[in-house]
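Example 3.2
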Amino acid sequence: MQQPVAGDRSIAVPSLHPSQARLAADLHCTHRVIEDPEWSLATVPHLTELCLQHIIDNFEKNPIVDHLLPEHQRKVLDRLSTGLPLAVTANLISDEDYWKRRCTERWQVCDTSSYGDSWKRMFFERHLENILKGFIPNTTDPNQVLELIPLCKDYVWKLEVDQFLPPVQVDQKEKRDDLSDTGSDLGFDKLSMHHYDLGDLITALPHLEELHLTYGVKDCGMNFEWNLFNFTHQDCCNLAAAVKMCHNLKVFKLTRSKVDDDKTRLLVHSLLDHPCLVELNLSHNLIRDKGAQAVGKLINHSRLETLDLCNNQIGHPGARALAQALAENSTLISLNLRLNHVEDKGGEAIGHALLSNTTLKSIHLGSNNLSEPTAVLFSRVLAQNTTLTSISFSCNHLGLDGGKQLLEGLADNKVLTEFDLRLAEVGEETEYFIHQIVWANWEAARLGSLQHPPTKPL
């Protein structure tokens, strides 16, 4: 043993055998690890976590979720990649939080109120719509759509496609130059090519209830060509056949697509006796009187409740055909004929029909070159009809006397809650008194039905 030196206060340490020294050093190190303030048992992952992470990392090759405990399912679904193939996730994952992540990462604006409050439905409807908007016939692989059908068919209830691209035209510039040399525009018809045929898709979607379509190109810029906006006869035949086979379709909208009389008759023929259709919108097209006559037949051979023919070219013969259908119809609730050319002959015919019709609640006749004769007849309608709650005569020429006639007809009316007479030239005083009567009717209806008040009148 080492002897202490005078004045040295250290404690004498006995000499150790080498093996004992190593053991003492190991014990010292162990003691230091345990006392390390930065060391924590939490840094060591549990076996369960390792297993869950393995499932997540290999989910595409071996998707496992149904056999996990609920708390483990939650952890896996919260950490799954939103880039997984739809072939893996579509029919396996129903968790709304997962589909919410996929939606919000892909689109800036997401509102599920238009999709039955379902994130999964929103994803598949918008995903399918985007594919259809970018589909180029003869260029895009049709399997992009066909392979998606078994994945999305149970989650698609509505499709809104506001663009259909035409096929790419080879040597299009040379063709235009050749046509310009002939001095004829007829050659442009040869350049009109058909768009994607929706038949196989629509008939394979068992829940499809709404179809909103526009045949045209958005944001074409300097590449503008008239044939980019051509809804061809073949397009119409294909669409008519598809819609006829879509037995659950309730709402059909085909707008801004240059639908003329011939195409209207084709579509109407496919919709006659349709079991479910309740709303038809053919607004902003090229429908004239013959097309309106065809629609008149449809009114009485279907269950239509809402019909929108706004901004077409319907004159008084077409209006008379619609009026005849109205006189016999018992299902139509709303009719929009704004921005047409029905004039007084058509307006009077519709007025006569409304003297006997007991189901129509709303009619829009704005911007139709109507004048005092129509106002006189509608004065009788206001006095007798107990169903109409909304009428619009905006942007017509009813005149002061026409306004007085309408005011007189409203004297005992208790049901009209909306009456739009803006720019109808009825005079400010008459318009004020009419507004007071309509407002009183609206207030009475509100008090009588607090849970579902009608729209506030203009």
